[in-house]
Design brief:
about 100 residues; High-Potential Iron-Sulfur Protein, Chain A; signal; High-potential iron-sulfur protein; iron-sulfur; High_potential_FeS_prot
Amino acid sequence: MNTRNRRTFILHAAGLCAALATGGRAFAAPALVDESDTTAKSLGYRANAGSVDAAKFPKYAKGQRCANCRFYTGAAGEAAGPCPMFPGKAVAADGWCNVYAQRA
């Protein structure tokens, strides 16, 4: 192997190792929304719909939860999934927020 081929091989191998080392982060699940997050507070988000204060949020009705909201895009049966109200984060399937809209 001449010097040029060896140098090229080493550069490609280093690039591949770097890509493999950081690639796992791209497939990691997004962090769950924290109820103390500013957006979560403004939307009245609760990770457990059963803990919603119905007096404070009269729109809430028993049985409403993120999993049956039109904005929730998580897969059926998963504990959490994405919601456009919280970009880059996941909401609990059993959660609720004031933007809730029944899925058709």
